[in-house]
Each structure stands twice: as structure tokens, then as C-alpha cells.
Amino acid sequence: MNNDAVKPVRKVVITVAGLGTRFLPATKATPKEMLPVVDKPAIQYVVEEAVAAGLEDILFVTGRNKQSLENHFDRAWELEAALEQKGDHQRLERVRKSQILGDIHYVRQGDPRGLGHAVLCGALHVGDEPFAVMLGDDLIDTRDELLSQMLEVQQRYGGSVVALIEVDPSQVNLYGCAAVESASEDDVVTVTDLVEKPDPADAPSNLAIIGRYVLHPAAFDVLRNTPPGRGDEIQLTDALKTLAGMPPEEGGGVRAVIFRGRRYDTGDRQDYLRTTVQLAVERSDLGPDFRAWLRDFVAALPPEAGQ
């Protein structure tokens, strides 16, 4: 174990600079991260997950037209005053929650040069300490403590840690993909190679990277020297491949937690709709009535052609 393994992770970089083109025209003026999942914007679920894992120093890497995201995590004096005057304390508490979640900072990415470049934009804020990276498209169920487990693994071993899920082999071209070796504990493996969005025939495995990382600060120097890769962008996957081959005393080594819990993807329209339904049916305040309506609605659907 190297000395960096015992440094506590205090900061998280959340990248939200994307244009959200899959959701146009809804995202023409509204960041995709602010689209509601039931009654909270998707990004609030991510921030709440970070805070629950003990990471209250939060840096958003943003882009143009993200002002509504910043406003969401700020005070809304007029709204709060109106709710207080009406005596609507339940909604007032929910409105205030988003502004007291953590110590939130912002930096703009500027040029859209890929996820690796977005992470690099956090270098000045993070400094020389390990840090987490979270992507706003992936929501992890509150009953499954993925990020906390990743932080524990990084504390034990040092280096960097990624989260992997098993996907259908035909879907590996949608993800960064990892080759791994077994480690001494269940669902924790050593990463030996990484490929960004490989052809299924060339994929090293069906283990795909999802949007949770805990990185050694050496990642910043690696990213500075990582040339543009797939899509002519600086790929975080390429930097992680370099880190995996570096010696531990230089911040190298990449381990992975294989996640088998509940993950909700809000990255495209179909998955976004599924996520909203899945979370709504499990809500104690909405679920019973919504499930009953959903059963009736599905039962009344006409059969598809050919069935």
C-alpha cells in the first residue's frame, strides 16, 4: 500500500457540460441534467449520492446554458418566502434541501473536448489528493452503496478505482470496456486493460465502465499528456489504461468494483422513461396509486401487430 491510499477522499468532480442532444428540443434551453426524474432533477440524485458517501466538496464542470443548474443549488428567496407565507412547510423543506447538500463550486469546460478534458478542468480545485468523478447520466439506487465501496477500496489499495457492470456482449460498443484479473475479494478485480467503445468482436470482456470513478491525482498529469482518441476527444478511458500500467509509487494501478445492484440510466429517452417509472412505482407516496394505474393502463393496451 502506498501513502496515497490513506489520504481521505474529500472532493468529487461532477461533469455536466454536455449538450444533451438526444433530448432535443427539451434540452434546447434546459440542461439535460435538470430534466425531472419524478419530482427531482436527475442531477440532484447524483449530488445526494455523493453527500451520502461523505463527499461534501462538490465541483460541477459545466458548459454554456447551465445557469438553471446553478440556480437549483442556490437560494430561491422569493419562492421560499411564498411557501413560508402559505404555511407549506413540506414543500419548503424540499426546496431548501438542494441548497444545503454540500459546498458546491463551478468551473466551465469551455471547449467540449471529451470526458477526460472535463475531468482535467477540475485539477486546480482538487489539487494533489485522490478524488471522485461522477457522471450525471447514471443514477444508483440509494439501497446500493456503490460509491462508498469504491472509496473503501481506494483507501485500502491506493491508485484508482472504477465501477464495472456486466452487459450483453452486443452492447459493449456503447461503453468503455475492461480486461480484468481476479483479486483477493469478491467483486473487486484488478484492471489490466481498457478500450473505449470497442467493436464487440474485439472487446476484452463484457465488463463495462459506468459513471463512477475514484482517481489518484496522478490522473491529471496523465490526462495532460493523453492525445485525443475516439471521436477526436480526450478519453478518460485512455488515461485509465495508462494508469493501469504505471507502478504504484507513481500513482498507478487501477482496480474495479463489479456492481450488481440497481442502476438507472438517464442517458437516452427510452432509459430515461424507464428510470422515471421504476423510481415512481417504488415511492411510498406515489407508488400504490401509480402501480394500480400502470397495471390498468398496460392491460388495456391493444396487442401489437402480428401477435
TrEMBL record:
It is an enzyme of class 2 (transferase). InterPro entries: GalU_uridylyltTrfase_bac/arc, NTP_transferase_dom, Nucleotide-diphossugar_trans. The keyword Nucleotidyltransferase applies. One of its GO terms (biological process) is UDP-alpha-D-glucose metabolic process. Residues 11-278 form the Nucleotidyl transferase domain. Keywords: Nucleotidyltransferase, Transferase. GO terms for molecular function: UTP:glucose-1-phosphate uridylyltransferase activity. The keyword Nucleotidyltransferase applies. Transmembrane segments: none annotated. It catalyses: alpha-D-glucose 1-phosphate + UTP + H(+) = UDP-alpha-D-glucose + diphosphate. Its EC number is 2.7.7.9. PANTHER family: UTP--GLUCOSE-1-PHOSPHATE URIDYLYLTRANSFERASE. Belongs to the UDPGP type 2 family. This is UTP--glucose-1-phosphate uridylyltransferase. It comes from Phytoactinopolyspora mesophila. The lineage of its organism: Bacteria, Bacillati, Actinomycetota, Actinomycetes, Jiangellales. The gene is galU.
